User: What shape does this take?
Amino acid sequence: MLIAFIPVASLAAFTVERVDIPMRDGVRLAADLYLPDGHHRHPVIVTRSPYNRKGERKRGEFFAAHGYAFVAQDVRGRYDSGGAFEPFVNEGPDGYDTIEWAARQRWSNGKVGTTGASYLGMDQFSAAIERPPHLASMWIAVAATNFYRDSAYAGGTPSYHWPIWILDSASRDPHLSASQRALVTSILAKPDAWLTLPPAQRMATFDQLPGQRNLYRGFHDHPLFDEFWQRPGLDNERLLDKIKDVPIYFVGAWYDDFIGSMTRTFERLRTSQKTEKRLQVGPWPHGYGKPACGDAQFGPVAALDEHNAQLDWFNHTLRHKRLRVIESPPVRYFRMGGGAGRQPSGFFPGGSWLASGSWPPGGAAVRRLYLGPKSTLASRAPLSSSAEAYSYDPANPFKPAGGRTAACIVDQKYSRDDVLTYQTEPLKEAIDATGAVRVHLFITTDGPDTDFTARLIDVYPGGYAMPVADGRIRASYRNGSRKPEATRPGEIYELVVDLGQTSNLFAPGHRVRLDISSSIFPRAEPNPNTGERPWNSGRIRVARNAVWRGGNWASNLELTVIPR
Assistant: This one.
C-alpha cells in the first residue's frame, strides 16, 4: 500500500529544452530534457516512448522538481525522431546509447534509472540486456518479455490487439494525410466491423501506410514462433540471463494480458540476481493504478500513487536513501474478494494488500475442481466418462464483456448454446486462489482444428458474476507453437489452457464458475475450423466440439491456493 508523501525541504526550479541524441548509426532521436536549475550534477531518469514524448511532461516536471534530470525520448521513427520505426527491434541498442549519452552530460552524476509501462517497459528490458555501464535502476510496469506468447499469438490464437495497436500507431503518425487519418479514426471508433473482414481486405486499409502495412503483413505471415518473433526486443525472455543485475521494481495488474510475464520475470530475476527486486500487483487493467476496474469499486486503498512511489524507489536506488513509501516485503499483491458485492451504489468486491517474499507466496498448493454432468464443478471427478458437445460457428463468435480488457470487471450474464458453464455449490469454506490458474481439457472436435477458451468467474450470493481470469488455446498448437499438429475427428486430446495469474478470495456462499467456449471476440481472431490460415482462405466451417468429464478424461480447473 503506497499512501505516504515524501516531504522535501524545497522543490527545485527547472527548465525544459529539446535535445537531439545521436545513436551509433548516426540517426538522431528527439528528446525533452527536464533539468533542475543550477550547476549541480544530478541522477538521471530516462523514458523512451513510441506514443509521443510530450505525454511524459507531468512525470518530467515532477522529477525535475525533486532534483532529477529527466529525459523523455521519442523512439526511432516516431514523432520528431529520425530513422524508421520497427516496433521493439531497435530498442536495445538505442536504449543503451541514450542511457550512456545521459551519463556523459555535464549535468549528470553518472547514475541513470529508467521507467515506463507497456512498450516503455519492454524497451527497458531490451536496453538492460545490452548492459549499459551506467544503468543503475529500473521501474517496469505491465510489460511483456515474449511478445508472441504474451500478446500476438497467445495460446496460438491470432490476437486482435496487435492489428488495433498498428492502426492506433498509424493514427498517431504526424505525416498522415487528412483522408488517411479520417479512415483510421473511423475504424478505431468502431473496430468490430473491420475486424470481421477477411485479413486480405483488412490489409487494404494500409495501402497508403507502408510502415504499418509491413507490420501487419509480418504478423500474419508468421503464425509460428519462428525467427521473426525470436528477435531481441520481441523475445527478451530467452535473453534474461544477460540482463544487467540492477534493482528493478515490477508493477503488474490482474486484468492485464502481461501479468504472467511480469510475475515470471520478477521471480526469475529475484532468484538469479543479487540486487533488489520488488513486485506489486493490483486489481487493475493494462491502464493500471486506479481504484476502480469496470463495475468494481475497490476503494482508495487500491490506488497507486505512482509518482511518489517511483520517487521513493529512485531515491533509494540512486541516492541510497531509506525507503519511506514502499513497504519492506519484496512482493505486495492485492487479493480481491471479501466485500459486500452488489449494492445500490455499485459493485464492491473488497480486497486488501498482502505481502510475501516470493511469487507465488510460500505455502501455495494446487487444488483441482473437476467438471461433471449437469454443469457441476466439484473436488472429485465423476467415475465414468461423458462428454458435452456444442457447435461453434466462427461467423457468430462469442463476445464476452470484461476480463483482461479495459472494461475489466463486468457482470458475466449471457446465455449461448456454444458456452458450457460449470460451477460449484455455494462454498462452505473460502478458497484463496492466489497464483497460476490452468484448465486441463479433454476434448474432441470433428475437423482439423478449432479453439477452446476458458473463463474463471466468482459468482456472488446476489448473482453478480465477476470475471477473474481467462485464457485460450488453438487445438493444433497443443504441443507447442513451432510445429502445429492437426486434430483428427473424434480423437480425444488433452489441452492445457493457461489463464495467467490472479489473487481472489472466493468467500463462503460464493460459487466458483468455469465457462468453456471456442471464441473470445474481439480479443482473438475466430478459428475458421478448416486447418487453413485465414490469410490464404476465406473459408469457414461450423465445428462440433465436445468437452469430456470424468473417468480417464477428467477435465479440471487447476487453482493455486493458499491454505487457510
User: Anything to note?
Assistant: The mean pLDDT is 94. The two ends are 23 Å apart (CA to CA).
